[in-house]
Structure formats: structure tokens, C-alpha cells
Design brief:
The complex is a heterodimer of chains A (373) and B (242).
Chain A: H1 9-62, H2 67-73, E1 77-79, E2 85-87, H3 89-166, H4 170-202, E3 210-213, H5 214-231, E4 235-239, E5 245-248, H6 250-268, E6 274-282, E7 285-292, H7 299-303, H8 326-336, E8 340-345, E9 352-358
Parallel strand pairs in A: 4-6
Antiparallel strand pairs in A: 1-2, 3-5, 6-7, 7-9, 8-9
Chain B: E1 8-12, H1 16-28, E2 32-36, H2 39-48, E3 53-57, H3 65-74, E4 81-85, H4 90-98, E5 103-106, H5 111-134, E6 139-142, E7 145-148, E8 153-155, E9 161-163, H6 166-177, E10 182-184, H7 185-192, H8 202-215, E11 225-228, E12 232-235
Parallel strand pairs in B: 1-2, 1-3, 3-4, 4-5
Antiparallel strand pairs in B: 6-7, 7-8, 8-9, 10-12, 11-12
Helix pairs in contact in B: 2-3, 6-8
Chain lengths: 373, 242
């Protein structure tokens, strides 16, 4: 997938394009000068022929040829008021007009040529720029991802090496084995998130939307992240009223809820916090709210919260161990599910609320019977 | 362990599974170890307690390991620091060492290497302390300058006082132990940092420049810290002929 461009091509691009433009403009100027010269010489040549014609006409007149007959032979020669044969002023004007027309035509054509050239260069420039941007993102992604893998890998290696080096008693060996399993789960979770985000980023996802009972879906995810919550001393509560149903893909719903809950638990981890999931129905669909009393975020951080690898460093958040992909995945899924996601916080240290809105399952009454946190 | 008192180590690492593994192994080696999980608490603990070594993760919540180390160094705290990081690019290493770190270990690391590095740092530190304690005088005098290796205080020829960093003092100590002899840059690195720490020998040159700034009357024509082109440095307590 990675396109290789030889090093330095980026640096050469700008001067090359400028040189190309300068050469083209100089070439066009030369054409213009050349054409103006050519048109002038052409006019002078024709004018000289007219002068010769006038002399010939006068000789024919001297032989007694009628002025009319001469005019038929030389249409651009006519007699002035005194009967002298001269070049017709209209013919001179026509010559001058012809020259102007020729030059004007070349001005327009050159302008058009330069415009087309500039447009081509602009398209090329943009294409290369975009490609460079994609490459930069890929590099960043690789650097970031490999960096994220190193801490659980370090922990895993340490456990294995401890087992080998210390030959520990069974009880401690058991503890080490459990720690290794936890590290493997962490790594698996990361791989899943990376694959999810890559698929979602390319839009290669198929959703099978169906009717989902929200309360059951939330309970299911809550039970899955309960371990994590307990480990971080976080109270996790689901307050979703029965009877609410959404039209969505079951796996997508689980993915979104799990990411939001994990995010909320990580944000409240150190303060012995509380995370509440609630839901309510309104005109646009069904809102699921994940509210925590954790670290919160500033308005500025809130704007880049759903971008890749954005992790907010505020207060005492445990943050150097996440993948930085969870909220990006949520945003992409909600985009494909024709839903919405938003986040609000009263500020750092004052908790946060994440709201996802799904379309309501067809056939459900729209009302305000939902609970809120 | 044959040590009279175990070395005390402060570990600041926010990833709990990894931190637990390190703590258990260091305890098994006979170290006394204290674990904290964020930068600010780490700073407070490093300030208030006397540790023989700090092991700092670079990416920490609330305050980065680099910031923590630089803050401590700014306050004159000389405790040696081993950085742990997931990023291993040369730039990161240089930044860590310039923040005042002694060594730099990239995750994932080998347990044996981790333990060896810690031993090496403690041994170098021990060498410095014992050589200062057993030297005829812990105070070095040369060319109107005066350096107290115990307190890291220096008084230069113009009467100004300076607080030397641990590395500056160690380099000066290595040079002063063999006055007049040519000491290779690599030897200096080996004695002060350990050979595998620094990416380039130029860093030593920067430390020498700083020493010249403090102790030489004219930095352009140094009389005590003489460069031996292509090799290293020679320290002349009496000063070279002008």
C-alpha cells in the first residue's frame, strides 16, 4: 500500500514547478514577440506589393485602360478625387486590422495555454501534496502504533524472563501467568482496534442493521467491561429503561458502547469515579449517554477528541496506555450508521458526557419516557 | 547481598503490570524500591526522600519523566536517573540525557540488561562517592579555581560560584585523577556514562566546553582543559604555557 518515492522528490517539486512555469511564460512571450514581428513583416510585405500594384495601375492607365477595368484587375487600387490612382484607404485599414486580429488571436491562445498549464500543475501539485500527506499519516500511524505495543510487550517479556530467571514458587508463577494473559488481552485489544479503525477509515464495512433492544445491548457491554471498572475502582451503572429499541448493527453498537465505556473508565480511574449509562428517546432518535465524573476536557481538546491518536492529558488521567483510536472508531461507526456522537464537559476535572444518537427502530412510539442520568 | 544497606530506588511508571514486574525483580535483587505512578507524585517523592537511583518512564501522566528529571536537576538534586521509554530514536536518547539522565533503556527490554544497567549506574556513582571520600582532599584547586567534589560547588578564578552538575563533576574527577595524561573521549564516556549510552562522543565535547566556560580565563585559548585532536582531552592543573 505504501507508495515509495525516491528521497528528495518532495524537495525538488517546488523549484521544478516554478522553473516549468517560468520556462512556459518565457516561451509564450517569445511566441508573442515572434508573431507580432511576423504580422508586422507580413503587413509591410503586402503594403509593398500594393505600392508596386499602384505603379503598375498607373502605367496601365497611361496606356488608356479605363479606371473600372484597372479596379477589376487591382481591387485595392482606386482613383482619388483628382483622378490619381492610389491604394484604397480601406485596403490599408484592412491590412492593419488583419495584423491586430492576428496578434489578438495569439494573445487569447497564449492566455488559454497558460491557464491550462497552470491548472494541470495545480492538479499535479495537489495530488502530490495529498499523497505526501497520506504517507506522513501512515508513518505517524506506524510510529504511534508500534510505540503503543511496546509497553504491554515489555510487561509480557518481563513476566516470561522472571519465570525463567527466578523459578518462582507455584503461587507466584500463577500470578505471572495471569499477568501474561492480561498483557496478551491488551495486545489483542489493540490489534482489534487498529484493524477496526483501518477498515472504518477505508469505508470497507458492511452493517446489517436490525432492531436492537437497547437495555439488553447495554447490559451485555457493561458486563464485559465490569472487570476493568472494578480493577480501577470505578462504579459502573446502567440506567437504560426497558422498551427502547434502535435500528442498528449489533456488532457496531457493541463496539461503540464498549469504546465509550472503556474511555470513561480510563478517564475516571484514579479518582474512584462513577460511570453511568442512560438513554432517552427524542425526535431525532434515541440518545445513549455515557456520563463520568472523571478528568473531563477543555473546549479546545473537545474539538480534536474524535481524531486519531488524540489523547487528552489533564489532571490525573491514566492515559499513556490507550491506543488513541477508540473515539475515532466511535465517530466512524456512527458516521456509517447515520447516527451522531458528541461530547461535552464542564472543563478539566469536572467529568464528561458522551452522547450517541441512533435512529429509532421503526414501529416504536416516540416519547420522552426515557430516563436520564 | 554484601552491601551494608540496600540501595534505595524510586520507580515512576504508570503501567501497573509492567511496574509490578520491575518491582518484584528489583526486590529479588535486594534493592529497596518505592513505586509511584505519575510524574508529580514522583517529583514530590524524589524531592523529599533520599534515593540512590530514579527509574523514570518518559511518558507519564501529570508530568513527563523528562520534565521531572530536568526539574530535579534544576533544583540541584544529583540522584542518578535511568529513563525507560517506548521510543528509541537517537533524538529521544539525546533529549533524555540532556535532561540530566544517566542512562536510557528502550521498552521492551531484557531483564538481565535492565538489572545490569542499574548495577552499572550505581557502581559509577559509588566510585565517585568513594573516590571523593578516600581522596587526600575532596577539594581540587587549579589555576585559581576551587572545586568541592562533595558539595558540587565550584569557585572560579573570577570569584563567581557555580553549582556543577553530577556529570560535570564526574568528568572533572576522571580528568583530575590523571593530570597531564591524555584521556580518550571513549574512556570518559565509559567512566561517566557507560559505553552503550551515548550515541556520539560529541556530547563529551559539550561538557568540556561548559567546564572551560566556568574555569578557563580565556575559553578560546584554554590552559587547563586541552583538546588532543582526534583523541580526547588532557587536564593540566598548573596550566599550559601561554
Amino acid at each position: 500500500m505504501v507508495t515509495r518515492v525516491f528521497p528528495g522528490s518532495g524537495r525538488l517539486l517546488r523549484p521544478t514547478i516554478i522553473a516549468l512555469l517560468v520556462i512556459s511564460v518565457v516561451q509564450v512571450c517569445w511566441w508573442m514577440w515572434d508573431q507580432a514581428n511576423y504580422a508586422r513583416q507580413n503587413m509591410e510585405r503586402v503594403h509593398a506589393l500594393y505600392v508596386d500594384d499602384a505603379v503598375a495601375a498607373r502605367r496601365l492607365a497611361a496606356t488608356g485602360m479605363s479606371t473600372e477595368a484597372i479596379h477589376v484587375l487591382f481591387p485595392h487600387i482606386e482613383a482619388d478625387g483628382d483622378g490619381n490612382l492610389i491604394i484604397a484607404p480601406e485596403a490599408v485599414t484592412a491590412l492593419e486590422d488583419g495584423r491586430q486580429k492576428h496578434i489578438t488571436q495569439y494573445i487569447w491562445e497564449s492566455g488559454f495555454f497558460l491557464c491550462v498549464l497552470a491548472a494541470c500543475i495545480a492538479i499535479l501539485w495537489r495530488g502530490l501534496h495529498e499523497e505526501r500527506e497520506v504517507r506522513r499519516q501512515q508513518d505517524n500511524f506506524l510510529a504511534h502504533v508500534s510505540h503503543q505495543f511496546k509497553t504491554p510487550l515489555a510487561s509480557l517479556r518481563l513476566s516470561v524472563e522472571t519465570l525463567v530467571k527466578r523459578q518462582p514458587p507455584p503461587e507466584y508463577a500463577q500470578q505471572l501467568a495471569q499477568r501474561m494473559l492480561d498483557d496478551l488481552s491488551r495486545l489483542e485489544g489493540m490489534v482489534t482496534k487498529i484493524l477496526d479503525s483501518a477498515r472504518l477509515n477505508r469505508g470497507r464495512v458492511i452493517f446489517h442493521n436490525t432492531r436492537i433492544e437497547l437495555a439488553a445491548a447495554v447490559d451485555n457491554v457493561v458486563s464485559r467491561v465490569m472487570d476493568m471498572a472494578q480493577k480501577h475502582n470505578v462504579t459502573l451503572q446502567a440506567e437504560v429503561p426497558a422498551g427502547l429499541a434502535i435500528h442498528a448493527d449489533p456488532l457496531a453498537v457493541e463496539n461503540v458502547l464498549r469504546n465509550l465505556l472503556e474511555n470513561a473508565i480510563a478517564a475516571t480511574a484514579r479518582t474512584g469515579g462513577k460511570v453511568v449509562v442512560s438513554a432517552k428517546s427524542d425526535r431525532d432518535g434515541i440518545d445513549v449517554l455515557v456520563k463520568d465524573n472523571g478528568t473531563g476536557f477543555t473546549a479546545e481538546d473537545g474539538r480534536r477528541l474524535f481524531e486519531k491518536f488524540q489523547r487528552i492529558e489533564t489532571g490525573d488521567q491514566v492515559s499513556s496506555t490507550g491506543t488513541g483510536l477508540g473515539l475515532f472508531i466511535v465517530r466512524r461507526i456512527m458516521h456509517f450508521e447515520h447516527g451522531r456522537v458528541s461530547a461535552s464537559s464542564a472543563g478539566p476535572g469536572r467529568g464528561a458526557t458522551f452522547t450517541v444518537t441512533w435512529p429509532q427502530a421503526i414501529g416504536d412510539a416516540v416519547g420522552d419516557e426515557g430516563a436520564s442520568a | 547481598m554484601s552491601l551494608p544497606a540496600p540501595n534505595r530506588i524510586l520507580l515512576v511508571e504508570d503501567d501497573l503490570p509492567l511496574a509490578r514486574g520491575m518491582v518484584e525483580n528489583l526486590r529479588a535483587e535486594g534493592y529497596e524500591i518505592e513505586l509511584v505512578q505519575d510524574g508529580l507524585t514522583g517529583l514530590a517523592r524524589a524531592r523529599n526522600a533520599d534515593h540512590d537511583l530514579l527509574i523514570l518512564d518518559v511518558m507519564l501522566p501529570r508530568m513527563s519523566g523528562l520534565e521531572l528529571c530536568a526539574t530535579l536537576r534544576g533544583e540541584g538534586k544529583k540522584t542518578p536517573v535511568l529513563f525507560l521509554t517506548a521510543r528509541g530514536e537517537p533524538d529521544d536518547r539525546v533529549r533524555g540525557l540532556e535532561a540530566g539522565g544517566d542512562d536510557y533503556l528502550t521498552k521492551p527490554f531484557h531483564l538481565e540488561e535492565f538489572l545490569l544497567r542499574i548495577k552499572a549506574i550505581l557502581r559509577r556513582w559509588e566510585w565517585y562517592r568513594s573516590s571523593v571520600a578516600t581522596a587526600a582532599g575532596p577539594v581540587l584547586k587549579f589555576g585559581g579555581n576551587e572545586v568541592d567534589f562533595r558539595s558540587f560547588n565550584a569557585k572560579s578564578w573570577d570569584g563567581s560560584t557555580h553549582d556543577l552538575t553530577e556529570k560535570e563533576a564526574m568528568i572533572l574527577k576522571v580528568l583530575a585523577e590523571r593530570p597531564g595524561e591524555v584521556i580518550a573521549r571513549e574512556d570518559l564516556i565509559e567512566r561517566v556514562w557507560g559505553m552503550d549510552v551515548y550515541p556520539s562522543t560529541r556530547t563529551v565535547d559539550n561538557f568540556i566546553l561548559r567546564l572551560r566556560k566556568v574555569f578557563e580565563r580565556e575559553q578560546q585559548t584554554p590552559r587547563h582543559f586541552i583538546t588532543v585532536r582526534g583523541v580526547g582531552y588532557r587536564f593540566l592543573p598548573e596550566g599550559s604555557e601561554p
